[in-house]
Amino acid sequence: MAKVLVIGGAGYIGSHVALELLEKGHDVVVFDNLSTGQKMNLFDKAAFIEGDILDPKALNDAMSDDIDAVVHLAGKKAVGESMENPSLYASTNIEGTINILNAMVCQNVRHLVFSSSAAVYGMPSYLPVDENHLKKPINFYGYTKSLAEDLMEWYARLKGINYIALRYFNAVGYDAKGRVKGKEKNPQNLLPIIMEAATGKRKGFCIFGNDYDTRDGTCERDYIHVSDLADAHEKAVQKLMTDTTSYRLNLGTGIGVSVLEVVKATEKVIGRPLEYAYQGRRPGDPAKLVAKADLARQILGWEPKYTNIEDIIQTTWHMEE
Question: How do residues 285-305 score in pLDDT, each as one tens digit?
Fold first, then answer.
């Protein structure tokens, strides 16, 4: 078992990762500035440090307490915002990652699990997307994740840090046992928006494009449950403690689900129809984006447990009931 510093551990994905690490017997320290994370997502068994990744001293101090591994989940992640405000994403996602790497070197912490993204691939040239696919991000958010991975590769070569970059596809759902209490703040993804319509917080929603080359004309995506992501992070920590090799791994189910299929599955779960309308395509949206995650299965011994979209939606709906 390891002592793990979970940076961003009070956020949506971070709280699930912290919970999984605690469940597996690790000693967890959460480091979070609470800009999007929430105190209600902190667990009694985890220590908490309120701090910012743009504060090198705070990071050094946090890592000085016999930390074995770092899980880095802190960062900005809204694609549209990254194109409108690149300086914010450059400072948080790039400068913040550099600060984390430098603090690790200073405090002799050698193991890093990084929250990356399928956005590093850009428009897929083939499907399913594997880790050999060229990195060609088409938005600044994806670029910051790609650059962070490359920075880690150099620190691995020059400073002996071994890392596992986990490239998420579409993270969805909540802990099925209801142990994570705080919902994601200001979500901009499909399922949380549908939930806001289902609960009356918004009047309907839009589906962007119904003329794609897919089963029903709407975009297809690979939806991966957040608890499956958390399981992969814990397995990555375990792997790093015994293996000096670094890896970049996809996390997805390999199953494409269309936007309309998500809507229809939600209607089935909540037991009533939803109000929605079609609009034109959004720039930069690929018709299909599905992962090939065989390498994560092979390297980590990881297998997603949630592969049925209705089961995933049910874990989201229980946060609203």
Answer: 999 999 999 999 999 999 999
